[in-house]
Amino acid sequence: MNKKINAGVAMVRVLESWDVDHIYGIPGGSFNSIMDALYHEREHINYIQVRHEEVGALAAAADAKLTGKVGVAFGSAGPGATHLINGLYDAQMDHVPVVVLLGQVAATRMNYDVFQELNENPMFADVSVYNRTVMTAESLPHVVDEAIKAAYKYSGVAVVTIPVDLGVEEIPYMEVSTAPNYKKGVIYPNVEDLKKAIPYIEEAKKPILYVGQGVKGGWEIVKAFSEHFSMPIAASVLAKGIIPDEYKAYLGSAYRVGTKPANEALAIADLILFVGSDFPFAVNVFNPEAKFIQIDIDASKFGRRHKTDVSVLGDGTASLKELIKIGKARDADDWYNANLKNKENWVNWLETFENRSDQPLRVEPIFKEINRIAEDDAIFVTDVGNVTIHATRLLKMNGIQKFTTSGWFATMGNGVPGGIAAQLSYPDRQVFTLSGDGAFAMVMQDIITQVKYKLPIINVVLSNSSFGFIEAEQEDTEQKKFGVFLQDADYGKMAEAMGAVGFTVTEYEQLEPAFEAAKKSDRPVVIDVKVKNERPLPVEEMLLETEDFDKEVVDKFIQKYEVKDMPTLRALLK
């Protein structure tokens, strides 16, 4: 007698074979057959009940960003499916593998315009690298296996739509998963291509290394390269944490969500070595006249962000390691030393605000507390807005800690979901979420999810009663500030009402006790800090040089942002 298995259970076991240990979603009638399968497999895969499908999709994307493994979420037919779309675009645009399962009405009722029936394939076509509707119960495990492979292969979103009646059918038992055969490897560069880069490095007077996530795990090689060629380093925001922030030659990130040292160096560099990144704001920051060496595992990216003189197809870390071998050491010169001094001045300037007791509070004292209590392997999930700028500049990460945000899609509300993902994937590590009040309010209902699953996440909310990032854009375009001011609320009390530990901080003296309690808590914590609605220093357009701007304009800028003891890079080079 042929052995049989429930089709839904067979599909869930495929997920398990690919090392999926949790899945996010909300039940719905069109997904009931798979919910039953998840019940039967509950000892092997955890169902995480979120309070909004968007949170589930954003959490799945964060899982992929933090672990490199596929994240999985689901939604029922109609509204459950449409709620997922925001998190899926986040995954697509940050190039991480996510599989999403969509409920659908029974196959026998499809195309009859029944309750909640939605033609889901066209809707998800743009966001996906794989998008199929399961046609038979027997094919359900196979289609999900193919979806996972596609998500990994293309670093994107794979969508599987499942008519509800197929998941309950009994099908012949057979091994379907191809997970044991899955392989991934390193693309090694062609040495001849690397040799073409050496003359550019030797001739450069103002070289800089710009790295992205393509050097993840390669900090020691990046450091060795920087020191061998006496080259300062800048990095993408998504690469935050790969290089210890305290490293003397690390200038930080570029453009608006960046630092003064990185922007100034990239603006006048005569050689940019662009490794493992696809930085979309290069046109706004990089010197257009600079020579450009680009290293990437995706040849379609060559020349996309800057005229490229040398392209190298290969792994970023492996390429840098080989360049050290074949290139002559370069002595530290005025360019290198001036950038180190610029970095030192920048850090010293930021630290002058750490003990300020302004009311409402400045953000620097808050980050001082975060850095103080952060464990050596802490994980930081940063939401989108001014909080991203503050986190990029003020988190003092050590190269072991992890960081993620919504990079390219830059969707507000990714902080709380990302924290859930981080704590589930790394249950023994300390997790912070950092959000503005605008972003936090979009997803704060899922503090309940943190409570339900006993996730001791430290959620920090910077409440300035404004969409501050957009307010600054309206300021720059000299338009009337409109639609950006928010009604304030007590998010600490809201957290308490949901079962978390809540603090509402309005004074400097309240900071240390709140963060000390958060560090010791075994429950989720929300620390709502009422902060001054003050624009971060706009490093993308600094008015600091009287050679370029009227003295009155420069003086006004310096006074507004309290700039002192921080000469420009050009001044340091003179």
From TrEMBL:
E.C. designation(s): 1.2.3.3
InterPro entries the record matches: DHS-like_NAD/FAD-binding_dom (IPR029035), POXB-like (IPR047211), Pyruvate_oxidase (IPR014092), THDP-binding (IPR029061), Thiamin_PyroP_enz_cen_dom (IPR012000), Thiamin_PyroP_enz_TPP-bd_dom (IPR012001), TPP-bd_CS (IPR000399), TPP_enzyme_TPP-bd (IPR011766)
Superkingdom, according to UniProt? Answer: Bacteria
The enzyme's main class, written as a single word, is oxidoreductase
Q: Where in this chain does the record put each Thiamine pyrophosphate enzyme TPP-binding domain?
A: 383-529
Which keywords are on file for this protein? Oxidoreductase, Pyruvate, Thiamine pyrophosphate
- List the transmembrane segments: none
Annotated Thiamine pyrophosphate enzyme central domain ranges read: 194-323
Instruction: Note the Pfam families from the entry.
Output: TPP_enzyme_C, TPP_enzyme_M, TPP_enzyme_N
The Thiamine pyrophosphate enzyme N-terminal TPP-binding domain extends over 6-120
Q: Which GO terms describe its molecular function?
A: pyruvate oxidase activity
Record family assignment:
Belongs to the TPP enzyme family.
Xref: NCBIfam families: pyruv_oxi_spxB
The protein depicted here goes by the name: Pyruvate oxidase
Q: Which organism is it from?
A: Breznakia pachnodae
